[in-house]
Design a protein that fits this description.
mainly beta, 7-stranded mixed beta sheet, 4-stranded antiparallel beta sheet, globular
């Protein structure tokens, strides 16, 4: 089983993009999901998380107010709507699954299934 992220591309600062991640999991609705990113030369960092039923969401401070995470359990897909993109948003974006049902947002170490990532490049 592999998660597949898509929707990345080259955009200008201030533009918007919507990332998708298909997770072909029979029990998709049982898992929390999240988005992470890794910029060139930097460690991977948390971007956003969403609970199983979408009742809770969380965001990194750097993207609050600009990014929005959502999910469609019927389509086993999560989304990341990114608005007002900035140069520092340039990164490979990964989606991931967590079985953690306690602490929210789930610690990064609890994510156990990852997608290959999609590249977002923001130019000036």
């Amino acid at each position: 089983v592999q998660l597949q992220a898509s929707g990345g591309g080259l955009v200008q600062a201030g533009d918007s993009l919507r990332l998708s991640c298909v997770a072909p999991l029979r029990t998709f609705g049982s898992y929390g999901m999240g988005w992470f990113r890794q910029a060139p030369g930097k460690e991977r960092e948390f971007v956003a998380a969403i609970s199983r039923t979408s009742s809770r969401t969380a965001y990194a401070d750097a993207v609050k107010g600009r990014f929005s995470i959502s999910r469609d359990n019927a389509k086993t897909t999560i989304y990341l709507q990114m608005n007002d993109l900035k140069l520092e948003d340039t990164a490979i974006y990964f989606c991931a699954r967590t079985r953690n049902l306690g602490t929210f947002p789930p610690p990064a170490a609890t994510y156990d299934l990852w997608g290959r990532g999609t590249l977002v490049t923001v130019s000036s």
